[in-house]
């Protein structure tokens, strides 16, 4: 397990996907390079002298490509804009005081702080790879699910967006474990990091990301990756997320969230027989109408 770093990546979706202005910082990025990979086509924009960061990001995109194609391919090229400083990144996304933020994904754009400025000694290549895999998962999910005009109106919940990106990038080592989440539910029954993450993400974004990761992994375990593809396909055909999820899974998204919460609170993740008897095995229909 690698050292857990502060949270590096946050999708546009967590903070609200809109509002990206294009200030002078981007206009000053005159260098361009193009990259074709199995998953799609990319254009990188960067400042003269920042070729090392361009190279690191190109390598990260190539490494991400074969792992992204499990979800399909990109319909339109993705523009990767390498901002020279953290301040430039915050200016582009119109947000302040997100010190840990390193990138921001939209439908066909990723704004990324130049990896050479992530720390005094630059970025660990493995962290750059992980960040790009996470962010590109967001672009791919948006492109599979919507067009460039309506991707922000699909009402895709945070747990699905961030969970999909975190699971694809194997980021569980960064987040609280299922037992930690179970304790959180025990101690904070008034809080819901999956169903109502908004009040938690500023101060406790690790529990929000962890819960999203585990909920998405639970979705795949119970219903399979094909179900995720059906959700995206339903949205691509015009449905919002709530309708596409209901259609693809046969259960409403809120009922699924309640199932997941019950699974965690009853420690359904423990091996059978461990710590006080067999783990409860919950069929979806057992709890669908009876949220705890
Ligand atoms: Zn994200």
What percent of residues are in strands? 5-15%
* Ligand catalogue: zinc ion
Q: What is the arithmetic mean of pLDDT?
A: 87
What is the helix tally? 12
Task: Summarize the helices and strands and which ones pair or pack.
Layout: H1 12-15, H2 24-27, E1 31-37, E2 40-46, H3 51-68, E3 78-83, H4 86-93, E4 103-105, E5 109-113, H5 125-145, H6 158-168, H7 178-187, H8 205-223, H9 225-236, H10 241-249, H11 253-265, H12 284-288
Helix pairs in contact: 3-5, 5-6, 5-9, 6-8, 8-9, 9-10
The protein binds zinc ion.
Zinc ion (ZN) binds next to helix 5 and helix 6.
Which terms summarize this structure?
about 290 residues, alpha/beta, five-stranded mixed sheet, 12 helices, about 10% strand, globular, disordered N terminus, disordered C terminus, binds zinc ion
Describe the structure.
By secondary structure, the protein is an alpha/beta fold. Helix content is 46%, strand content 10%. The protein contains twelve helices and five strands. The protein has helices at residues 12-15, 24-27, 51-68, 86-93, 125-145, 158-168, 178-187, 205-223, 225-236, 241-249, 253-265, 284-288, and strands at 31-37, 40-46, 78-83, 103-105, 109-113. Strands 1-2-3-5-4 form a five-stranded mixed beta sheet. The protein is globular and about 55 Å long. The two termini are 35 Å apart. The relative contact order is 0.11. Mean pLDDT is 87; it is low at 1-8, 11-21 and 277-292. Residues 9-11, 134, 138, 162, 165 line the site of zinc ion.
């Amino acid at each position: 397990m690698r050292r857990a770093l502060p949270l590096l990546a946050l999708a546009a979706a967590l903070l609200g996907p809109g509002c990206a202005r294009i200030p002078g910082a981007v206009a000053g990025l005159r260098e361009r390079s193009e990259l074709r990979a199995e998953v799609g086509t990319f254009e990188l924009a960067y400042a003269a002298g920042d070729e090392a960061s361009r190279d690191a990001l190109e390598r990260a995109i190539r490494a991400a490509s074969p792992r992204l194609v499990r979800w399909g391919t990109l319909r339109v090229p993705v523009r990767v804009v390498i901002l020279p400083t953290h301040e430039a990144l915050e200016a582009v996304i119109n947000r302040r005081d997100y010190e840990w933020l390193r990138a921001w994904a939209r439908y066909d754009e990723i704004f990324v702080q130049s990896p050479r400025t992530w720390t005094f000694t630059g970025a660990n290549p493995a962290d750059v790879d992980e960040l790009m895999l996470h962010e590109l998962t967001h672009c791919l999910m948006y492109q599979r699910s919507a067009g460039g005009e309506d991707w922000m109106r699909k009402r895709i919940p945070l747990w699905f967006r961030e969970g999909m990106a975190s699971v694809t990038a194997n980021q569980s080592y960064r987040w609280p474990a299922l037992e930690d989440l179970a304790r959180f539910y025990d101690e904070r029954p008034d809080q819901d990091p999956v169903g109502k993450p908004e009040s938690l993400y500023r101060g406790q974004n690790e529990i929000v990301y962890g819960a999203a990761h585990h909920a998405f992994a639970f979705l795949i375990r119970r219903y399979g990756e094909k179900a995720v593809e059906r959700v995206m396909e339903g949205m691509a055909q015009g449905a919002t997320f709530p309708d596409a999820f209901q259609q693809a899974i046969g259960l409403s998204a809120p009922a699924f969230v309640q199932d997941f919460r019950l699974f965690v609170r009853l420690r359904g993740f423990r091996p059978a027989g461990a710590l006080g008897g067999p783990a409860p095995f919950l069929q979806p229909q057992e709890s669908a109408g009876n949220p705890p």
